User: What shape does this take?
Amino acid sequence: MLERLITNIRKVFNIPELRNRILFTLGMLAVYRIGAHIPTPGINQDELAKFLQKEGGALLGFLDIFSGGALSRMTIFALGIMPYISASIILQLLTVVIPHLTKLAKEGERGRKKIIQYTRFGTIGIGLIQAFGIAVGLEGMNKGAFVQAPGWGFRLMTILTLTTGTAFLMWLGEQITERGIGNGISLIIFAGIVARLPAAVVQTYQLFEVGQLSGIALLSLTVLMILVIAAIVFLETGRRKIPVQYAKRVVGRRVFGGQSTHIPLKINTAGVIPPIFASSIIAFPATIAGFITVAWVRNIGTMLAPGSVTYTILYVSLIVFFCYFYTAVVLNPVDIADNMKKYGGFIPGIRPGQRTSDYIYRVLNRVTFAGSLYLAVVCVIPEILIYKLGVPFYFGGTSLLITVGVGLDTAQQMESHMLMRNYEGFLSKGPMRGRS
Assistant: This one.
């Protein structure tokens, strides 16, 4: 099997276009990692990193994952790509509410470019607000000990630096998407998570060396991680296929239609959006409470801290809620049924129109329920291991979801390029079903 893998890698680099795309992607990701170590001017980084590690709370630790550690070091990429993700999600939600955006979404390539332009403007706006909040927060933290020269000069410099860093990352992601391989934004997040992986492995092994982690526990963690990754791969590529039959139509002397196809409903339509939203909403009050000395505020922060029963229940509930909510935004059974009826399609045994939309809605609800439970289990496993059993586990559920999902997408992109040129493919078992 190793020999076959080496042969397939050679085939990949034998295709000039695919080789150039891979090298371009690696070059852009290298630029991103270099920028993640360039400090923001006017900040005492060492003292700030120690303070954030001690008092930062769950939210800062969660956001630091997506910035590849740039937030805790307060570098020029401290905001990471999160403003772009937030702007994209907000626009997707507004597309359902605002008729103008709904019309643009149905206009094909022209509408898509317009929505991308709105997303860029939204990213800059969110970046400016977050950068200003960080600048003011740094001045107020620990009596301004982390800022060398407080004032509007420092605030404007921080706003300009962090917002420009986010805009550059957005441009970098678009370049990777256009001239590289895969989704550029996803690959940037992937690179940030993978960059922290060696340190996590080293920390786990150090705990084993000092005796804090037994050999059986280390082996159990390894097996558990392999099983979780296997489950993620299986469920992320899983589909519930609804059969669709198209009636034959005779136009002149030609016969159209008559073929059978299916509607593939993903088990996890929402992707990693539910865990991201749920973690952000719950962690925000806990993080704010860490900087306030009022007793009742501290108690609320303790109740919502990771590891508590309240946190776990809210976390699972919000994941399930956002799974249903985001799926309802992305997929509309009424539109699917209308399009099928327009082109002469029907589900065998189901009448076109209202009956079809009701059937799709019922199947979608069941699939989404299974997907939401899968997401909740994957995301709660690290919380149980760390806070309930006291087992050090540095590979979070959300990180694993993103890493495996982006890996599947990238492999699918490489598979497509190879199959276009009559190669057998990158994987040994034939074409791969990606998440999209």
In short: The first helix runs from residue 2 to 14. The mean pLDDT is 79. Strands lie at 239-246, 249-251, 254-256, 260-266, 345-346. The chain has 17 helices and five strands.
